[in-house]
């Protein structure tokens, strides 16, 4: 199934799944000098209040010489849905144009059903802004939207990211409290939630899932497990998958850290083992020798840097006897000169 078909499938279900004998009417005047100005009607997902795309367009019509336009029929759903009406400022520019500025606006979002009527009055700067809509949920959404905008100004008009996160949580709590108190239509609640960052919804979903489970139940009941109920369920699934991915990433990093620590520990143990083995090897390489009393005396005098003559004089032995003792000492310690002997004799364990 293509991505575009997946995207519009819920709306196809919404539109064709519930025909009625109702007759909707969307009409009004577009205050522009051009004749045959094209006006578009779009069906929106709950989180597409600020989005605009050709994929959303249901149908279009053109104004007459007086700027009048109308959409009429019975092909919309009886269920409340979010729509947009708009017209491009410049017909020669390809694609969809969306303007929402202080002195210019070319679209209007509204909640509507197959049994409703909406009439747009002339307005040269804010097209489609002056209107009368018979849909009760649209009135509810506008009232709650005014309250939500007040909360945004109060809590979210900040530059510090940390403070924004804290105030977003507060904004969400206030908004939830408001819609619960007023018992709003689930579509109204859903649209208001759709204006919030996903990370804020995910955090609140983890902390207080009851609110979100109840909203899903209400949407399933009203939309027969399709349309906006299906979109909302997909959102919850995405948030849960995102949570699972984050957990997997965390545990993956944790496992990498543990593996690194294990390798570090094993490396340290191996290094220590090598050092101990080297120490044992050095210990084993040291010759276990025993010296005679006279050899001990000769060795001590050699350590004191005495010459052979000085050793012979001090011990009252001949020079040849001193040399004999020195040769025996060299043989026992396996050295070939006095410097090696002195170094090895100093470090050699002896009884």
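Q: What amino acid sequence fits the structure above?
A:
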């Amino acid at each position: 199934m293509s991505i575009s078909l997946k995207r519009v499938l819920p709306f196809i279900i919404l539109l064709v799944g519930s025909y009625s004998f109702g007759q909707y009417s969307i009409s009004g005047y577009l205050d522009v000098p051009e004749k045959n100005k094209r006006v578009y009607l779009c069906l929106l997902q709950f989180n597409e209040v600020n989005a605009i795309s050709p994929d959303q367009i249901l149908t279009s019509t053109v104004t007459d010489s007086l700027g009048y336009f109308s959409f009429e029929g019975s092909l919309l759903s009886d269920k409340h849905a979010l729509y947009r009406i708009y017209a491009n400022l410049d017909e020669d520019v390809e694609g969809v144009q969306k303007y929402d500025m202080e002195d210019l606006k070319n679209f209007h979002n509204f909640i509507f059903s197959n049994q409703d009527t909406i009439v747009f009055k002339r307005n040269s700067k804010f097209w489609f802004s002056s209107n009368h809509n018979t849909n009760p949920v649209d009135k509810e959404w506008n009232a709650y939207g005014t309250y939500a905008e007040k909360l945004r100004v109060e809590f979210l008009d900040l530059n510090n990211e940390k403070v924004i996160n804290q105030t977003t949580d507060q904004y969400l709590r206030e908004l939830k409290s408001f819609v619960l108190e007023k018992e709003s239509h689930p579509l109204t609640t859903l649209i208001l939630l759709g204006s919030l960052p996903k990370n804020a919804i995910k955090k609140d979903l983890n902390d207080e899932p009851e609110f979100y489970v109840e909203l899903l139940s209400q949407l399933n009941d009203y939309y027969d497990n399709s349309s906006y109920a299906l979109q909302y369920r997909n959102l919850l699934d995405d948030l849960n998958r995102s949570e699972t991915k984050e957990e997997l990433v965390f545990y993956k990093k944790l496992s990498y850290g543990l593996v690194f620590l294990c390798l570090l520990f094993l490396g340290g143990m191996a290094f220590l083992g090598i050092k101990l083995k080297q120490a044992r090897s050095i210990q084993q390489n040291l010759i276990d020798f025993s010296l005679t009393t006279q050899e001990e005396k000769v060795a001590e005098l050699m350590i004191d840097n005495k010459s052979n003559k000085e050793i012979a004089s001090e011990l009252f032995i001949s020079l040849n006897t001193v040399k004999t003792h020195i040769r025996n000492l060299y043989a026992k310690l396996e050295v070939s000169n006095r410097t090696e002997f002195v170094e090895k004799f100093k470090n050699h364990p002896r009884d």
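Q: And what stands out in the fold?
A: Residues 15-20 have pLDDT under 50 and may be disordered.
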